[in-house]
């Protein structure tokens, strides 16, 4: 785009018609179908895991005795990954593509640059999601939340995302409108930020070219910082900024009002992307992360209130002349509640980043409530509004039933309320129970499970909320289906190509006026802004040694423990068990001395977890006997009455695959774990020695296990206990926190 | 254009006071108290300054608008008189405002598919929230750099000391129960059972018949430290088992106090001396002990 060319604005261009062209609506339709399809599956997966929390026997019920041969395909941790990935990448991801492919063409008055790139984008994305379902169900994951995909999928995702960006940038370059609208600023900054986040967080070392297994190159504290820098900004740049971009197009379109304030959109856009990137460490408050990073996380989260609210304000004030119309129009209802939920979530978030509230909310259901207020309310309702509006537009017809859409709105709204409020209650109740001391100075609730019993009613109510939301979603599908049947779809929509004319600069706001006409400069500037915050937090954490003090006693995992750790990761144990004791009185009394940064230096990846559905395991080693762990994994309720942990009989049944142990240890050595050559060479022998010891312990302690295994061997010709996965897992659990405990 | 753009005094005072209090809070650390004399002095001075500034502002405002034509003046006066919250309400519900029918705001049109943008001013209160959060964060950061504000490890040490003091106070008022003065109490059995189920049953089963831990209802004992059955039980719960670290010292590591151990020990003692035993018990572990003989022997010595 040459500097001198300017736009003829608004009404003028109809006079100078010279050409007609066509918008590509087909690609929008594809993405629209995908959004609805994956949204449904994502919600169903979520409902399933919410029910599993209070009926953990569902897998036994489905598989019966065959559960132990199921290879863990219905393990809780795996389905949770599927739920988050489907909701974030599949539902919202496809929504972003739907909306952006629709509005970019119209905002730039040009057809999308390349049909082939669009199709690669579409099919690539769906294949990526399908493959992540398959790999997660088979137990391949990196354990890093929202980034659990293993390395080939990471590369694939990166390529597809890159292609999406190329496609929109090329479209921008052949645009017939000089200025770029706010939506497009948001899409560009989203694209470049997600690329950076995705690339840096997913640097992994595959154990071989033909294996899906890989290890994060970062360890412990650094990996944690990297992961939550990513995790937080996945929320920022996948669930927030692109949705704001969509909001800036679809809200004024649906209500036919001008945007309330151009200035506000400029200021809140730049402040939002600049400040958001800093706030990642608030996910790691009171952990072993260096305190200065935590402080940065807190203060930038607080500063984020106004920039976030800028988006809500601009949206709501754009809708303000239509308060009367919203009674008639269900789409506007969705938009209003969506924006209000956005405002609530972005107030809740900074509050959670303050120390006092974080000490209550972290590791509890507060986070679940916060996140779902955002996804169900802000993202979900925005998506529903857009889906209804687009269906009407693309199929050139009215909605099949406005009343049904209104009903969807109300049932979804009630669903959100029934979901969110019990979760806040459950959080406050449970964390108070954790922290409560009796007057003699001992914990009031000595057994963790008592605090779980008290919140189970809330889990049940939450499921009902989720179920109502699902019903609303199904009604929407029916409504959309009927509307499509009535309407007529145009693959290529005709439009008039405006001529670009010279126009004088806006003198008042020269710089931004210039920037709005320069897609590259705009993208580079937003990249620089997000880079500043990232660099200031990440680089010192990696370079300055004093951030992570070495503890001499901390030893690397033995070969068997390493294998056990991989099983722990495979089953997603870290989604319910934290490994991070915070410096609070109650946690130190309950679990042992608080966690130190130096304890995690050999953890590739870190496994601190973000939720404490079950007790913390950072110092689990030596607390229970080997046979206890065996029985607990086989059936948690046999040793811990009323436990809500699912049983994992397949871990007991399956043979441990140790064929990769040399490779794994070699790569760990490359990543900085001090294994000697002898250790690597003798790893299989070491595994045998350590596992025999554990099996001996188990048999000594429990005759029933011995009998069980003998019967098992006879009937199924299964391997001896020494060779099974459970022994590796027990070895790992017994190692946790042991190094520091043994000093004292 | 002249405008009386400030938020009302009562809101500004709350905001500035909270900033001042926050400064004191972050820099004084644990010595902070709301009745701190310096703080109160500061607040008083600021209060006076605000009142005076407000008067001056108003004075200037009225002086200025008197120079304007009547129409503009009236409009500004109405704007001035409208309550802050009412203005906020009008922002979201503009059609409720009688006086503000015409909208003189510029509409920007760059040909964005029919979407235009008003060139409205950014709402002052939004800006103020932004400034406020920046000021708070700045104070927070300075306090973190130069003082021990917001240090989790120091917070922990403080809470640890406080907790220890509380326990000391409690223990002064209540007699301490130790191995020397404990004895079997029948009325503790029920309470002991609750605690046993909560803490011990995961290894010993609810009926004490043993699972991964040994059977507690038979006469075989791995650890024989005292020559009285009840005291032996109390001793093991307090100190843990020397032979197996899994049986940790609940009293020694502060997890349980003597009184609770007494309850559990009473319960365990009661199920051990009971004649009816559970049906499925774990195989015997340790040595068979005849406690009567043992205690007699000891007395004779």
Summarize the structure.
The complex is a heterodimer of chains A (744) and B (301). Chain A is mainly alpha-helical. Chain A has helices at 26-52, 58-63, 76-108, 115-137, 151-173, 182-201, 220-237, 241-255, 262-276, 291-303, 305-318, 330-352, 355-361, 365-394, 402-435, 448-453, 456-486, 510-515, 519-543, 559-570, 585-591, 626-634, 636-639, 649-653, 661-670, 677-681, 683-701, 703-716, 725-735, 738-741; strands at residues 19-24, 204-206, 214-216, 492-497.
Describe this structure in words.
The complex is a heterodimer of chains A (744) and B (301). Chain A is mostly helical. Chain A is 63% helix and 2% strand. Chain A is built from 30 helices and 4 strands. Chain A has helices at residues 26-52, 58-63, 76-108, 115-137, 151-173, 182-201, 220-237, 241-255, 262-276, 291-303, 305-318, 330-352, 355-361, 365-394, 402-435, 448-453, 456-486, 510-515, 519-543, 559-570, 585-591, 626-634, 636-639, 649-653, 661-670, 677-681, 683-701, 703-716, 725-735, 738-741, and strands at 19-24, 204-206, 214-216, 492-497. A two-stranded antiparallel sheet of chain A has the order 1-4. A two-stranded antiparallel sheet of chain A has the order 2-3. With 301 residues, chain B is mostly helical. Chain B is 56% helix and 5% strand. Chain B contains 11 helices and 4 strands; from the N terminus they run H-H-H-H-E-E-H-H-H-H-E-H-H-E-H. Chain B has helices spanning 9-28, 37-66, 70-81, 84-92, 124-146, 152-173, 189-199, 201-204, 229-239, 258-273, 291-300, and strands spanning 107-112, 115-118, 220-221, 287-288. Chain B has a two-stranded antiparallel ribbon. A two-stranded antiparallel sheet of chain B has the order 3-4. In chain B, strand 1 and strand 2 form a beta hairpin. Classes of the chains: A mainly alpha (744), B mainly alpha (301).
List keywords for this structure.
heterodimer; A: 744 residues; mainly alpha; two-stranded antiparallel sheet; 30 helices; 4 strands; 63% helix; globular; disordered N terminus; B: 301 residues; 11 helices; elongated
